[in-house]
Amino acid sequence: xxxxxxxxxVGGTGMVGQRFITLLENHPWFEVVSIAASEKSSGRTYSEAxxxxxxxxxxxxxxxxxxxxxxxxxVEDVAKDVDFVFCAVDMKKDEIKALEEAYAKTDxxxxxxxxxxxxxxxxxxxxxxxxxxxxDVIESQRKRLGVKNGFIAVKPNCSIQxxxxxxxxxxxxxxxxxxxxxxxxxxGAGKTFNDWPEMIDNIIPYIGGxxxxxxxxxxxxxGTVEGSxxxxxxxxxxxxxxxxVPTLDGHMAxxxxxxDKKPSKDEILSxxxxxxxxxxxxxxxxxxxQFLKYMTEDNRPQTRLDRDYExxxxxxxxxxxxxxxxxxxxVCLSHNTVRGAAGGAILIAELLKAEGYVKSK
Length: 361
Hints:
The chain is of the alpha/beta class. Helices cover 27% and strands 22% of the residues.
């Protein structure tokens, strides 16, 4: 009998759900025992449910091929077999909110890839290296939900996870203004080139809702727990443009930043090299050993060459130089469906387990 925590994946047939499946294949702490999806997929084996829809290069893991997919809306049925769930469903925001709260109210923790609860005041939105202290608000959330063990924790938008980690160690110098232009892969829309041929040889200068998320979510990440809620930071001012580009995986950002007290270039490079968060201190299974890596070549990082740095869980940075309007500018890159989606959520779950929030039922 395995002593691993039993995991359910709600929304397991979509691209992010598939990424959860592959990343958890040989996980030392977690084992996928249940997969749920829409009613049309339920009642079929997982391999049948994703036939013709499998979007990843890695094959479907043998252990999950014959799992019978459940209906995600049958909350009690899914929850009874698992210790916690990952949620990555394609539904309307209000429906996702209700579904995730329903799971939490069965005393089942929910680690969500969805945006629905990112601005719920007592739901922590976590990049584990940056704001692990926000987990403190979970006890207030449990009181609101009337549960002992259930809760919801969410992963932030994939686009901010290239540049916010790079900015985070520099906050001691008083970041006051940030401009970021993100160049986002098509997998961020759940697509491959096979099902989105219009993206070949094309750039689309608009991604619905993305710029508001990119400008506001960092402020919650950098906010503080005050009583029963997380209060977002008042600064810096962040403005963004988010552009869809013809790459499969990897979100790149061009960043411009100004400070109250301008650091030297050597100070910035030293802070990036030495930065460690709670996942590195705890040695969590999915944690990159070197979270932030500065690349000295003029033409790096590059999406195809560098998105898989630290198994897709690290952030690469390059081209740090002074700017004539802002203090500095640089570029950075993260893997949007690993660090920015399923892998980031798995790291949150590892942190939650290590801190005692997720345990065997």
